[in-house]
Write the structure tokens for this entry.
Amino acid sequence: MIYADNAATTRMSETAIQTMTSLMNENWGNPSSLYVHGQKAKEALEKAREEIASVIGANAREILFTSGGSEADNQIILSAAGLGEKNGKKHIISSAFEHHAVLHTLKKLEREGFEITLLDVHENGIVDPSQVEDAIRDDTCLVTIMYANNEIGTIQPIRKIGEICRRKHVLFHTDAVQAIGHIPVDVAADNIDLLSASAHKFHGPKGVGFLYAKKGIRLQSLIEGGAQERGLRAGTENVPGIAAMAAALKEAQEGMETAAAHQKKMRDKLIEGLKQIPHCALNGDAARRLPGNVNFCFEGIEGESLLLLLDDKGICASSGSACTSGSLDPSHVLLAIGRVHDVAHGSLRLSIGETITEEEADYIIRSVREVVEYLRGFSPIWRDLMSGKKEFIL
Amino acid sequence: MALYSEKVMDHFRNPRNVGVIEDANGIGEVGNAKCGDIMKMYLKIEDDIVQDVKFETFGCGSAIASSSMATELIKGKPLSEVRKLTNQAVAEALDGLPGYKMHCSVLAEEAIQSALEDYESRQGKPAEGAGT
């Protein structure tokens, strides 16, 4: 099996698994208990907090553990909105291609009377910092722009956007779920006030994540109950998961340079190879993208059939077609960068891991080419395109 | 647990009656690229019997499998039977489709009825009972 869907989830690293099982076996106490067995678990929890903080340039007290990226996004956005409302500020700026954890939370706020501005992300899938500057108003309480897009991998100019927000005294949140552990993220250098991350995107376990909230920003709790996480997130902490997340992040950070260099090489090889297929297009900026992300649209075919046939060839990938999303519309990300429905249905996302080999990349290119040609062979759209009855879009 | 039944996967992997009939006397195309599914059916009808049928489909796995199964269900059949083909029959023959994929079987039924209407209008007959 060639696993090329690391943006969906990653395999847990050996270190993360070992950390997790050793805590489950030996250090399984409740961190809120006062006896030594409990305090040992507390120690593991706080050690994880410090390790994570040091990786992203934060202080341990600024890190809060959550169940994952979605919870972190929800808690941060709702908290920032609550703070804004207190000061009569009910305007939030975001982008059109955020993750649904952000977009749906903003929709909810819109129904509650907030005004939401979603910035255009252009054909290359990148927000221009000047758009943020122009959109900020006196009543803007939050700017939330993702660090890197989950589908097309484009990396946003976070540092510059953060700088603008600092200057204008507006809180700045970034959903860094796809970036953390893959490219350098430093909350201080990047002028980030609030950040969300998820462990299973960097070889940690599922169901655990963290948020960063700069000192002085008061968060609201989504879950009421005990006083865990300084009263900001009730419920007994997932100590094994949290410790495994910290171990995975540390490992990812240490190996980042080497991994990214290799992934970039393989990514560009895949892009070059797939580009040779007629009537296709790369989605998102070719250079300013995550080291492991490749995303194409192929005209005349539909993404789900492409995925099923690639699965038969042992390749795990994903698509933004309507059929894979369970809705009638294709991916909002592809629509946001201006792909029309007809071609957005024929998209393929390959998110390669650190261990992909040249041979595997060659096999992927060969397989995609074969499957695309095969599906085009009995596609009525392709027939119309080839006969000139319809005009090619790509 | 796979997304689709074995039957669906079989018809998806090895679709029956794929292609074009150059001298078809009934052609129907339904769906649109915007929604992500297009089915085109070619019928060769002689003596009120479907002598040959072929299809082309742009769509997901269940759309391709539904087209393939629908062609199998009508090949060699008299028009009186073809008119009665329902999407339920297509879905059942495939050992079921996930709920949100049932529209693929509807599309297959519509493609065949549309090809039949085309045939009947070419014959100068009213498209009686078609598409109901």
About this structure: The interface with chain A takes residues 3, 9, 12-13, 15, 18-20, 29, 33-40, 55-61, 63-64, 100-101 of chain B (CB under 8 Å). Chain B has one domain: 6-122.
